[in-house]
Design goal:
The protein is of the alpha+beta class and about 180 residues long. It has a domain at about 50-155. About 50% of the residues lie in helices and about 15% in strands. It has six helices and five strands; from the N terminus they run αααββαββαβα. Strands 4-3-5 form a three-stranded antiparallel beta sheet. α3 (about 45-85) runs antiparallel to α5 (about 135-145). The longest helix has about 45 residues, at about 45-85.
Length: about 180
């Protein structure tokens, strides 16, 4: 039991309080002495807390960036694997020209591959510095991961209007001329 102060001893001797009340008061005094209110943080503690919070935020941002980079590399590896496992062997002597951004590229294909490209059953994709032909199913898987790899997809429904000259009168005039079926661009 905590030692009672002289006033408590006098009240106990006079019979005004019970022994249990004195001991309870003594316990509360001890708790009050030892359980002091938290000290207000100093400027250096506040600065250290602020720096710790900033470092934690930077670390979270760096980790998120690292995870995103890792995810992008994983997607690129998946695209490369899909292309390499599904590429169609190119053969033929006929040149097939297509746009790669602002540059016109050429692939050598045979008549069957040309028909499949025109129908949209084959798609041209970029693999490193070169180009490969892949079937439509593989192209759909590739598009889910990285649509920028697909260079030419004639079967894709873009919903875009036919390219024109920008002048409706010229387009109407040239519409009367038939394009030959055997024209190879």
């Amino acid at each position: 039991m905590a030692k009672a102060n002289p006033l408590q001893e006098q009240l106990l001797k006079a019979g005004l309080v019970k022994k249990s009340q004195v001991s309870q008061a003594a316990r509360e005094q001890v708790k009050a002495r030892h359980g002091k209110a938290p000290v207000a943080p100093t400027d250096s503690q506040r600065e250290a807390d602020r720096l710790r919070a900033e470092k934690a935020e930077r670390d979270r941002a760096i980790e998120a960036e690292r995870k995103e980079k890792s995810r992008q590399q994983e997607l690129q590896a998946q695209v490369r694997q899909i292309i390499e496992s599904n590429r169609v062997k190119r053969e033929g002597e006929s040149e097939y020209r297509f746009n790669d951004g602002t540059v016109i590229r050429t692939l050598l294909v045979n008549a069957a591959l040309r028909r499949q490209l025109a129908a949209g059953t084959l798609v041209i994709v970029r693999l490193g510095e070169g180009f490969e032909l892949v079937p439509r199913a593989a192209a759909d898987k590739i598009r889910e991961r990285d649509a920028g790899v697909i260079v030419l997809d004639n079967g894709k429904d873009t919903g875009a209007p036919e390219p024109g000259t920008g002048n409706a009168d010229d387009d109407a005039y040239y519409a009367q001329f038939q394009v030959p079926d055997d024209l190879i661009w």
